[in-house]
Amino acid sequence: MTVTVSDATRATQVLSRPVTLNGLTVPNRIAMAPMTRMFSPGGVPGADVASYYARRAAAGVGLIVTEGTYVGHESAGQSDRVPRFHGEDQLAGWAKVVADVHAAGGTIVPQLWHIGMVRNHGEAPYPDAPPMGPSGIRVDGTEGAGHAMTQPDLDAVIAAFADAAAAAQRLGFDGVELHGAHGYLLDQFLWSRTNRRTDAYGGDAVARTRFVAEIVRAVRAVVSPEFPVILRYSQWKQEAYDARLAQTPQELEAILAPLVAAGVDAFHASTRRYWLPEFDGSDLNLAGWTKKLTGKPVITVGSVGLDGDFLHAFRGQGAELGSIDNLLERMERDEFDMVAIGRALLQDPEWASKVLAGRFDELKPYDAAALKTLS
Ligand SMILES: Cc1cc2nc3c(=O)[nH]c(=O)nc-3n(C[C@H](O)[C@H](O)[C@H](O)COP(=O)(O)O)c2cc1C
């Protein structure tokens, strides 16, 4: 099946436009979604990791959001193969990643991460560090597997995020993304199931934003005013796909407003399928609602370029729900500003350049074997 010229031109026109996130101009609308790869032994991203990102930047990805990288707090993570964002060797590894991505013409932000109560006892890199979260409750509701964070714990984690953001700017990164999604620490504070605190960090939906807002403020205070601070958040959680922080647009607005006031420059609204409406009565997705309610630039994500329908539609077979036509229509309406691509970019490092040039026939269908290598 051949692609019509108008399909190709339309994709090029819509996706090739630059976009501004605070002081950063991203050359086009395509971002690489953050994806944990576990190819960084000792928490050090090596030359292979730098090439992996640079390859995608050279092939048209406008903004790379790195895999989640642990902030400098002992309980932040539980794998010695996930890159860390503290320590001399680790930061030297990141400096090479930044240099290679910039040399390839791309922009890049690290995704700063603390996993909170997802952590198990006895795991690397700090086996003695305890799991901790807002109330010591796991995402599945289990109690007793860790402890409720004390004020010194909260202060230490806030400082760890600020230190990491300062390091990111020092190393030449173009901004930072805070991982506030998917049931990890920041999201554990936002969610009523995992946050049962009775102090100022718990209570209603607005009170539950306090910890995240304090992190955003602390980050803002150590980076320059034009340095973009992106917050990724989601309704869904690992192990709880149907979870929701907000049942209505009004509830969502109540959660987002204090985060904007704290200094978030852009949101990355994580959904598993970008075409699904978030609330009844409108076909806006979570990113669309986030933009409408905050006025900030927003990145959407979720199964772009993965299924057969998308490829069919690329090949001129009509507008299916998850098709390129649907995506482009939403971007033409300014429902959201950027689209992040995850698995399709693992499969095909040249996904962005092919799409930007309308070479849709060359796209490769996704195969989970792509998860196993860093090619
Ligand atoms: C292997 C893998 C690792 C992931 N790691 C992260 C991560 O570190 N941080 C994060 O916010 N999301 C992570 N995600 C979620 C992706 O960023 C993205 O939201 C999800 O894959 C949906 O996009 P896609 O359908 O284009 O793949 C990961 C996804 C995959 C497949």
From TrEMBL:
**Which part of the chain is the NADH:flavin oxidoreductase/NADH oxidase N-terminal domain?**
17-361
Q: Which residues form a coiled coil?
A: none
Read off the Gene3D superfamilies from this record. Answer: Aldolase class I
InterPro entries in the record, alphabetically?
A: Aldolase_TIM, NADH_flavin_oxidoreductase, OxRdtase_FMN_N
Q: Tell me the Pfam families matching this sequence.
A: Oxidored_FMN
Q: Which PANTHER family match?
A: BINDING OXIDOREDUCTASE, PUTATIVE (AFU_ORTHOLOGUE AFUA_2G08260)-RELATED
This one is known as 2,4-dienoyl-CoA reductase-like NADH-dependent reductase (Old Yellow Enzyme family)
